[in-house]
Amino acid sequence: MFDETPEPNAERLRAADRGVEAERALGIENGAGFERNVGLEEFQRAWTELINAAIHARSRSGHGHRGADDLTLTQALLMEAVRGMENPSVGAVAQVVGVSSPSATRMIQQLERKGMMARRRSERDERSTVVAITEEGEKVLAHRRRSMEAKQRRVFEAIRPALRPVVLELLRDLRDAVDDT
């Protein structure tokens, strides 16, 4: 019978192959560059620079739609979650977004005051409150989504085509690493 257990070094070899591919994409010959031992301090500095660049990019860009400027990232995520659910309760939305029910309630109340969300008693269970996005909220989300897609397109186009697969893989590796912490 064939043993499908991967060799212990198989992942390390795949990672090395990806490093060689990245070196080729960058025009680096004979492994010079990826063999360099990057220290924690350098990683932390690069991480901080990336976060600062993202914050500055956000502060430089106006959303151009009434209400969109006042929408926090968490509020936008909450509204996007509601868009993907059918008559969600406040508790269900809180769970999907990863915030407490009281926090979700406060955010929904703020969004309700801005005219972007509405709450009502559930028709199935009068003890429960369901939420929905208003027409104004849909407009704000659509505008925010178009703006984000345009920003993503500009960043993508600024990356050399040969590096795009490497960047995509690095982004996924970072996502997995952040999710694991």
Automatic annotation (TrEMBL):
<dbReference type="InterPro" id="IPR039422">
    <property type="entry name" value="MarR/SlyA-like"/>
</dbReference>
<dbReference type="GO" id="GO:0003677">
    <property type="term" value="F:DNA binding"/>
</dbReference>
<protein>
    <submittedName>
        <fullName>DNA-binding transcriptional regulator, MarR family</fullName>
    </submittedName>
</protein>
<dbReference type="InterPro" id="IPR036388">
    <property type="entry name" value="WH-like_DNA-bd_sf"/>
</dbReference>
<dbReference type="GO" id="GO:0006950">
    <property type="term" value="P:response to stress"/>
</dbReference>
<keyword id="KW-0238">DNA-binding</keyword>
<feature type="domain" description="HTH marR-type">
    <location>
        <begin position="36"/>
        <end position="176"/>
    </location>
</feature>
<dbReference type="GO" id="GO:0003700">
    <property type="term" value="F:DNA-binding transcription factor activity"/>
</dbReference>
<dbReference type="Pfam" id="PF01047">
    <property type="entry name" value="MarR"/>
</dbReference>
<dbReference type="InterPro" id="IPR000835">
    <property type="entry name" value="HTH_MarR-typ"/>
</dbReference>
<dbReference type="InterPro" id="IPR036390">
    <property type="entry name" value="WH_DNA-bd_sf"/>
</dbReference>
